[in-house]
Amino acid sequence: MKIKFIGGAGTVTGSKTLIETNGFRMLIDCGLFQGLKSLRELNWDPLPILPSTIDCVLLTHGHLDHCGWLPLLVSQGFTGKIYCTAPSKSIAKLVLLDSAKIQEEEANRASEESYSKHTHPEPLYTVQQAEAVTPFFKIIPPNTAVAITDDITAVFENAGHIIGACSITLTLESKTLVFSGDIGRDDDVLMFPPTKPTMADYLFLESTYGNRLHPDLDVKKELETHINTTIKQKGTVIIPGFAVERAQSIMYLLWQLKTEGRIPNIPYILDTPMGANAFHVFLENMQWHKLSIDDCHQMSKMFTIVSNFEETARIISNPQPKVVIAASGMVTGGRVLSYFEHYISIENTTVIFVGYQAEGTRGRRLLEGANEIKIYGNYYNVKAKIFQIEGLSAHGDQQDLLNWLSALKNTPKCVYLVHGENLPADELRIKIQKQYGFKCSVPLMGNEIEI
Prior knowledge:
Elements: E1 2-7, E2 16-21, E3 24-28, H1 37-40, E4 56-58, H2 64-67, H3 70-75, E5 81-84, H4 86-113, H5 127-131, E6 137-139, E7 146-147, E8 153-158, E9 166-172, E10 175-179, E11 202-206, H6 219-232, E12 236-240, H7 246-259, E13 268-271, H8 273-284, H9 293-301, E14 304-305, H10 309-317, E15 322-326, H11 336-343, E16 350-353, H12 362-367, E17 372-375, E18 378-381, E19 385-388, H13 398-404, E20 414-418, H14 422-436, E21 440-441, E22 448-450
Parallel strand pairs: 3-4, 4-5, 5-6, 10-11, 11-20, 12-15, 12-16, 13-14, 13-15, 16-19, 20-21
Antiparallel strand pairs: 1-2, 1-22, 2-3, 7-8, 8-9, 9-10, 17-18
């Protein structure tokens, strides 16, 4: 059996792991590279094998860095099944359409305003190509052994992180392989704790926060303080929100604060159409999260949900103090860029980051103290106050990842640490070896192993 790491190794984006066994080829996730330009350019490169020769994709969850390359896979000849849970199918459809729309809009804008180095800027893929992925999805129930072939079975088990997210246990060639996907937190606001694996011959574990512990802070108190301070200064709070799950977590916490009378009665705005649609996925899949139907309906009433850009423009031009949740969470695209164009250079603006900021993204640069950022070919001075609330990350920290291994009844032959930048992955490797004595390896992009 051969396993090749063609994405999500040495970086937290572009997750793709290829398995070849007895003439059958499977891809675990098919994600988009984000962040550094050198990584983004990889999205335009062909896979090391023809998509038409891949028999199926097993999708851990619907985030862009795990599903965002599917339109290209299909357009380049893939005809197999994409196995995933029901919520993951719904979320992936939203994410892919949103991604395609943003790419088309940015290509058109680059062409009209002539800030691209390309004579005729093109999107990576179109809305039509994103829509073409839908027929290939094959929904499978969680916690159930599903036959992929006569010789391969897969079990999807809750990973927390976002709605529908799962780890995948594969049984093939008399071996058990476990792919973690992205592991959520044991004490997440909305998601249930991830299910721990009990058996694994080889384990492929994400390492996003492999060298960090989430601070033990009162995140509601932090939100309350930042919002009240900004509103007293007649400013605007902008929360770049990952449209799936983090946006709903922030909505829930803000609803609690407002219900408790701890934040003022001002406009609270959700300006991410995909986030609004993701809310319906929560309502349709109540067994996947902690909220009640009443919670969902009550918190949604608090927010103005924006559906078109004309409404975005009206909100931006209104100087009234407000709190805005807008995608994308790493400020790589989406409606949040329009808010930044207007507000990032205003001193009484507060930007609150609530999730992981990948290397090379605008979000990472702002957290590292950038004095200016580039948006649509123009530079803007950064005068807004920039904060991060780490306690709201959807990723488990180092301790969560170590805990996830605690139920194993056997000693894996190797734990491969993927989906992490090099330093966090290596620090997690040392921790795992010290705590459990497991052999660990940190593969690089393009590495291939035989087991």
